[in-house]
Amino acid sequence: MNESFEDGDSSIITTNNSNDFDDTHNTDIDQTTWRESDMIDDDDLSSGEDDAMSDDSSDTLTGYELNRDEWIILDCVQEVLNSFFEATKLVSGKQYSTIGLGYFTVNNLKEYIEERDGNHEVDQLKRLLLRQLINYFDNDADQYDFLKRHAFFDPIGFGILDRADRTKFEREIRNLDKERIESVVDSDLSSRHLQATAKKASTSNLLNGFLSSVG
Predict the structure, then answer these.
(1) How many domains does the chain fold into?
(2) 0.70 surpassed by pTM
(3) pLDDT (tens digit per residue) in 93-136
(4) CB 87 within 8 A of CB 105
(5) Are both 72 and 148 inside the same structural domain?
(6) According to the 3-state scheme, what is the secondary structure of 74-124?
(7) What spans are recorded as compositionally biased (Basic and acidic residues) (predicted)?
(8) What CA–CA distances, in Å, run from 187 to 76, 138, 182, 196?
(9) Whose CB among 20, 56, 66, 150 lies 3.0–4.6 Å from 99's, allowing a Cys bridge?
């Protein structure tokens, strides 16, 4: 590269910087080549590590892979628990849940898991669930009776009560109503008796006062 400029004596001075440019250019090429070579080595090393990790991950995932029988069991679990999933949405949804609705749900779940369809895995799951349902509801007689009593006053719950329970609760209601009426009558009679006694005492006091004044 030639450059020309004038000095103070107006003479022309010409310089040649081509060698300097070539040296700098060659140095840049050498550094770039070195960096690329180093990056290639790093890529090769990283690729080898990734392959090793990929093999380990593949072996690990293979160990977790389900076989055909295990997939069948999962399908059975989903089939059986789907009714419980729907029951949960029913009693805990946006609409107000009642005790009668709860009894209706529990009763229908119990009927469902009491059914047998010949599928060994499904039937076994139902037996396990039925055991727990009986433990938490039927075996707690007070709680189960409480559910049925309140279900009697709920159209949804009343519809699934058997005849024996309906007759039992109707009889209890009649007896309670009879006791209430008798209690009201007794209270009214007692009140009238007290009023009559007080009136009689007042008359006696007036009579005694008069007799004392003339006696």
Answers:
(1) 3
(2) no
(3) 656 778 888 889 999 999 999 999 889 999 999 999 999 999 98
(4) yes
(5) yes
(6) HHHHHHHHHHHHHHHHHHCCCCCCCHHHHHHHHHHHHHHHHCCCCCHHHHH
(7) 22-38
(8) 64, 41, 8, 14
(9) 150
